[in-house]
Amino acid sequence: MSADPGTVRPGGRTARVRAAVLRAAGDVLVEEGFDRLDLADVARRAEVGKTTVYRRWGSVTGLVADLLADMAETSSPREETGAVLTDLLANAGLVQRTLADVRQGALFRAVIAAAACDARTAQALRRFYEVRVAEWAPCVEQGVTRGELPVGTDAGAVVRAVSAPLYYEWLTAGVVPDNPAAERAARAAHAAAVAGVYVRTP
């Protein structure tokens, strides 16, 4: 059974080709948006043969899905500080820096816009966030083990609660989150978790 386009993780020259193509695809998304993403143009920018790009990724959505997979793989790993609050503050800081970054912020905005009208991109975006939430969930789970949070706390819900207000303002009001906004989001999620708001009900 063959893998979906762009999902095989290559090495050597193939890895260099993948990196160049994904970089070029990100450039197009940042500069021109999803509607202008074209495999032939990406191949030209990456200085790779069109046949290689079409054979490996097959479609624009296949390329975007692989770009998101790469972003999930290369995102900064979670920080473990030994306390839930400071772990959540670290998570909020990472989200803030990502959205405030000129390239990363524009790239996420383009992909989120594309996901609103393209099912495969939406699926790839959901997968990206599943990976990132799973990366940080152990911080909350360890907090439960240490007795900082109630037993039964939904770790994924707490992690999502940290980034939700930052994304909301960024997407709906065009406000790039700053450090105080990130701290407020983390402290609010932590306070709610301590109060048992995110305890799973049977």
Automatic annotation (TrEMBL):
Q: Which UniProt keywords apply?
A: DNA-binding, Transcription, Transcription regulation
What residues does the HTH tetR-type domain cover? 15-75
Keyword Transcription included in the entry's annotation: yes
Q: InterPro entries this protein is in? A: Homeodomain-like_sf (IPR009057), HTH-type_TetR-like_transc_reg (IPR050109), HTH_TetR (IPR001647), Tet_transcr_reg_TetR-rel_C_sf (IPR036271), TetR_C (IPR011075)
Which SUPFAM superfamilies has this protein been placed in? Homeodomain-like (SSF46689), Tetracyclin repressor-like, C-terminal domain (SSF48498)
Organism of derivation: Streptomyces galilaeus
Q: What is the name of the protein in this document?
A: TetR/AcrR family transcriptional regulator
Q: DNA-binding region(s): which residue ranges?
A: 38-57
Record flagged with keyword Transcription: yes
Top-rank taxon of the source lineage equals Bacteria
Q: What is the phylogenetic placement of the source species in the record?
A: Bacteria, Bacillati, Actinomycetota, Actinomycetes, Kitasatosporales
